[in-house]
Amino acid sequence: MNEITADVIIAGISIFTAGLTMAIGSIAPALGEARALSDALSAIAQQPDEAPTLTRTLFVGLAMVESTAIYCLVLSMIFMFANPFWEHFISKTGG
Fold this sequence. Notes:
This protein has helices at 6-46, 51-81, 85-93. By secondary structure, the protein is mainly α. Helix 1 (6-46) runs antiparallel to helix 2.
């Protein structure tokens, strides 16, 4: 039968961690972007003359909020494809 070896366990944990990182790491930016957009639309509705300034500021703010999700994506890709724990594990087990 198939054996569950330590490298299979590490691969499974890496996949689970990558998925969890993306799930948790994308919730907060999505909520933050929704609130920022809602507040910006309210401000534009109250002061239409300031729409270009508000829009420019909104886009800069959204880019900064979105960077958190991008960092989580990069971390997930590292866990999936360039896991730093593989070398440590292989050197300890002699495999």
